[in-house]
Amino acid sequence: MVGALVVAGCGVGSSPSAAGAGASPVAVSVAPAATPGTSAGPVGSGIPSGYAVPSAAAAPSPSGAPAATPAPTPTPRFTLASSAFRPGGQIPARFTCDGADVSPAMSWTGTPGGTKALALIVDDVDASGFAHWIAFAIPPGTTGLAEGAGASRSSLVQGTNDFGRVGYGGPCPPSGTHRYVFTLYALAGPLGLDGEPRAGLVRSALARTRVLGSASVTATYSRGG
């Protein structure tokens, strides 16, 4: 806002020679003081005098490039392995009917979250799924089974294999090379089985239970004839 100041006589800005009687009053424009943090528009800028313009100090600084979104943590892969043989390799005779017939050591990683129990089935896919080992109700925090675990009824809940025995029965093909698939299932709940069930009952229970994931490893064994 511009106010008009009338100066007469010996007012501010007059000289003694110009202060004669009857002199016309002089109008002087006075711009208001700049608000802290602002500046008046420069002469010739087209901005009216007294219009508050944000100063450089008051201008917001650029925020810069947006923060990068963290990459999601990948879900661990559920894997099953054995120190006794490599995937696709030959099972040593020690773990077959031609040797000590003990179960090989097994280990796994990446058990899915929410797993309440684990179940293991070993079958011969070249003999119509002949079941060699059934173990279930394995605690979810378990990360492996020691060598020979298939002979223990106290530390491992096991079913009856297709040899008609409880626990592990090693590869024993009549002739040629057979493939043996070890499959571990991560379950959202227990199978609800009692006793020492056969493979068919275990597979049926698996079909009724929510399976969170499965991991498998295949190996072979050959016999002459």
The proportion of residues forming helix, as a percent range, comes to under 10%
Fraction in beta strands: 25-35%
Order of helices and strands: EEEEEEEEEEEHE
Morphology call: globular
Number of helices: 1
State the distance separating the first and last CA atoms. Answer: 113 Å
> Rg from C-alpha positions?
45 Å
Model description:
The protein is mostly beta strands and 225 residues long. The chain has one helix at residues 199-208; strands spanning 3-7, 26-30, 38-40, 52-54, 79-81, 106-109, 117-124, 130-138, 144-145, 157-158, 176-187, 211-223. The protein has a five-stranded antiparallel β-sheet, covered by helices on one side. β7 and β8 (130-138) form a beta hairpin. The termini are far apart. Mean pLDDT is 80; it is low at 1-43 and 55-59.
Topology:
Elements: E1 3-7, E2 26-30, E3 38-40, E4 52-54, E5 79-81, E6 106-109, E7 117-124, E8 130-138, E9 144-145, E10 157-158, E11 176-187, H1 199-208, E12 211-223
Antiparallel strand pairs: 1-2, 3-4, 5-6, 6-9, 7-8, 7-11, 8-10, 11-12
Brief descriptors of the model:
single chain; 225 residues; mainly beta; 5-stranded antiparallel beta sheet; 3-stranded antiparallel beta sheet; 1 helix; 12 strands; 4% helix; 31% strand; disordered N terminus
Can you summarize this structure?
The chain is mainly beta and 225 residues long. 4% of the residues lie in helices and 31% in strands.
